[in-house]
Amino acid sequence: MIKILFAVWELDPFIKVGGLGDVARSLPAALADLGVDIRVVLPYYKAIRLGRIKKNFAGEFKLDYGGTLEKVEIIEVANPITMIPVYLLRNDKYLGVAHHPDTFAFFDKAIIKIISENVLSWLPEIIHCNDLHTGLIPLLVRENKIGVKTILTIHNLSYQGKASVDVLDKLKMDQTKCHLENWEIENKKLNFLMEGIIHADIVTTVSPTYAKEIMTEEFGCGLEEVLRGKEGRVFGILNGIDNNWRSNSHTRYVKYPYMSLKYKTSENIQAKIYNWEEGKMKNKLYLQKKLGLKKGSSIPMLSFIGRIDPNQKGIDILHKMVRKANLSEYELVILGTGNQSWEERFQWLGQFYPDNVSCNFKFDEKLANQIYAASDFILIPSKFEPCGLIQMIAMFYGTLPIAHKTGGLIDSIKNNVNGFIFDNYSSEALENAVQKALFIWYQDKPRYKTMVESAIESDFSWRVSAKQYLSLYQELINNTL
Ligand code: GLC
To answer: Can you tell me which residues bind ADP-alpha-D-glucose (predicted)?
Structure first.
């Protein structure tokens, strides 16, 4: 049985910041289904509330960091959704609150210590690292000559975790071991993600298209040359969604559950299951009332769910389009948090068009599911999108994505089949795609129906992706790459 330690800084349902938290929940579960012995390791933040979850003491050790010896406790729990074992590393000073760079440098070194001293009496063959937070692990593995392989998965290349090289002193690492670029030495900057890319045995990212895009200057965020240097060792594997878990959220949160419930759900469904047309209509009327929008089933509902992030999520072109839009044609619902000045701009639109625009600047899983269920279309105008889970969840709900032609959006949406893709990153191109979608919704109901049904039929289950990870693990262990 292959043994994998999956190192990550967020994990649903303990703590979730973005899509990575979902991946950390469901990918290990899909791999376990294929027979992998996979365990997750995560800092034990003070914000994590375990409630009635059973805790086991799994060991403790001392870690030299910043010149002092710090005690680290390992608490083992099972993820309550998947039952996958999770090791929570407790040290209130460094791991209590996520603070770059110390939390992550400390976390990475702690993982090395756990393996080199076999604290768990369990040794992985591979450490599967995720994003900048675990970026120093591959380097530390090499420096400490630990017999374990490393994979680094990049979920978003634009977050690299640059930090002062002082962190190397705290780790007692020699600066010459790191690949600091000359200009970075002058600025005394260490780049966590870059170190990870250079030293990992394999690098993966979360869609085949993004794997190609990051080799270019346009998407490479300054690391394109480093990535090109890894030729043949960079792979793109599309993320999935966990259909059973989705079904459970659907029944739990959605007022009128409907036909997309083709997957098994562990919840005992008492509720009536509607067909999608009736279900969507009822959920729309319910949500319109809840959010104070104009009521009626004869107006399409468009939504945006995600971080209010102007650098990635296409907030700027979305705002520009809505400002000019004929809002009697549709309603717009926004859910997410992020950049405050952009939130204010949208809020202003919401106040100006209270009957048509509803802004909800918060993180709310229940409302998110209700929005997916009620909406006809979901807008994903991202400038770049490594994978994106929103479009897959939307399709699960029979909600057609209208998305920019980039990254994982290309790999998961078939233009004019189960969604709409627009080429140029501009408010005009977005507007044209919206108009096309609205035309079909208003004028060509049979075609709209076929598209929704094809969206519901699209299969984004994790199994296919998990198999690809498994074969990479095997090749890495057998040295056949
Ligand atoms: C990041 C990316 C997103 C991806 C997620 C999980 O949040 O921005 O595209 O789906 O990670 O891999």
So the answer is: 16
